[in-house]
Design goal:
Elements lengths: L1 H19 L8 H10 L1 E7 L3 H14 L4 E7 L1 H9 L6 E3 L3 H9 L3 E11 L1 E6 L19 E4 L4 H13 L7 E3 L2 H9 L5 E5 H6 L4 E4 L9 E8 L5 H12 L1 H9 L6
Parallel strand pairs: 1-2, 1-3, 6-7, 6-8
Antiparallel strand pairs: 3-10, 4-10, 5-8, 5-9
């Protein structure tokens, strides 16, 4: 009898680890993470789109319950570099066609890019316009501290076009990597004037004054959008692109001051 009892005890002990490994019916932590990824659409968007796309993200989430939009804003050229180096993006929205063409040339897009907005430059000055800026030619006056975007950034490329068209050579005190950085220099009082998009000037409200100039019409930026090849959430990426191009998306772009493509 003692021998039989010992065998029964050994069998019971052997079964204990198996019971500990039983399926509880709850997903593992990494399964939760994978599911969250499938519910998220990651958008890389030009810095000048911050106000409009932040608004659009909320509208898209409301129209697609359970889907979350995360957006990374930066200069278009910087975003192309990040994506080409493997940064996870589902959608790319550029402030110009040149940087989108780079994405296309590198085979990083899923399908053809589609234009969804246009934008033009404006001069912004600190409240009160202490330097008395009235037009583009004032930016080269002695003692005026002007700030522009670097040439590889869409707003910088547009600035160079205007310089060439008008025969004017600016001598900025700094060249920034995004239009929001230019705006920051002006709102902080570090610059007398900066060249930003009309939409950024509108978005800044009373922090700056806008000085329109007719030469801006010589450089109109077109904004394209496309899904990124290998997107982790391809259906949501495609849906977001269509949302931006649709009636609600276009209404939000117009409200932010963007022109039609």
């Amino acid at each position: 009898m003692r021998r039989m009892a010992g065998i029964a005890l050994a069998l019971a002990l052997a079964m204990m680890p198996l019971a500990g490994c039983a399926d509880t019916g709850r997903p593992a932590a990494n399964d939760d993470g994978a599911a969250a990824q499938r519910r998220t659409v990651t958008v890389f968007a030009a810095a000048s789109l911050k106000g409009a796309f932040t608004d659009l993200a909320g509208k898209f989430e409301a129209a697609n319950p359970g889907t979350r939009v995360t957006i990374s804003f930066a200069g278009s050229a910087d975003l192309v570099t990040q994506i080409s180096q493997g940064a996870p993006a589902d959608v790319f929205a550029s402030a110009d066609t040149r940087n989108m063409a780079k994405m296309q040339d590198e085979g990083l897009l899923d399908g053809e890019p589609r234009d969804f907005a246009t934008n033009t430059l404006a001069i912004v000055v600190p409240a009160g316009n202490p330097a008395g800026i009235t037009g583009f030619s004032d930016l080269v006056k002695q003692g005026v501290k002007a700030v522009v975007c670097a040439s590889q950034v869409p707003c910088g490329s547009a600035t160079r076009t205007i310089e060439q068209e008008t025969g004017t050579t600016l001598k900025p005190v700094s060249e920034e990597s995004s239009v929001t950085d230019v705006l920051g220099k002006v709102t902080s009082g570090e610059a007398d004037a900066g060249l930003v998009y009309v939409t950024d000037a509108i978005g800044a409200g009373t922090r700056v004054e806008q000085v329109p100039f007719p030469e801006a019409a010589k450089a109109i930026n077109t904004y394209p959008i496309a899904a990124v090849k290998g997107a982790r959430n391809q259906p949501a990426a495609d849906a977001f692109v269509e949302f931006v191009l649709g009636a609600e998306g276009q209404a939000a772009m117009a409200a932010a001051g963007f022109g039609k493509p």
